[in-house]
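note to self: dont lose this again. the chain is below, predicted strucutre after it. 199 aa total, dont forget to put it in the shared folder this time
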Amino acid sequence: MGPEREALLERLKRFGEDNDARATDRADKMLNITRDTGLLLWMVIRALRPAHLLEIGTSNGYSTIWWADALSGPGQELATLVTVEISQRKAEMARRNFEEAGVASRIELLVQDAGEYVRARQSESVDFLFLDSERGEYVGWWPALERVLAPRGLLVVDNAVDKAAELTAFRQAVAATPGVREVLVPIGNGELFIQKTAD
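---
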């Protein structure tokens, strides 16, 4: 990652922190991932080299820029990155940030309901899925999330430690599903790694 993109990410991180400290309505908060989470998953994406990456919950695009940069290496020219955001205002902010970061051409940003999008997506079509959205919806989305995940595909869920109580029912649903494994990684706000096994 070049220094200009690093500097932009640092500015976006500070903007998100300052904004969220002032905002009283959750819908007005950026709720970005932490830098260490971004760096960890940047490394994971570069190692796995997924062909199809899906993010649910774009916000202002801070995390998406990490993923786009990770997919910018040699041999990743055909990799796809789709990010879904329901807020038009946040999506417009994200588009401007993608342009400034020089990654807009790598990203397909959709402004729509994530549940509808995932339910309509082809089965086993996502190699890496990052979930950072409305946690109360995750249980209802789980059958579709599991269906679209490719064999050996990886689903990473943010806020698995700081919002653990809100994910209890979701984790129970995951645990009751054959053919998946999960592990909690205590970095940032806590990342729940879920892998769809192939055997």
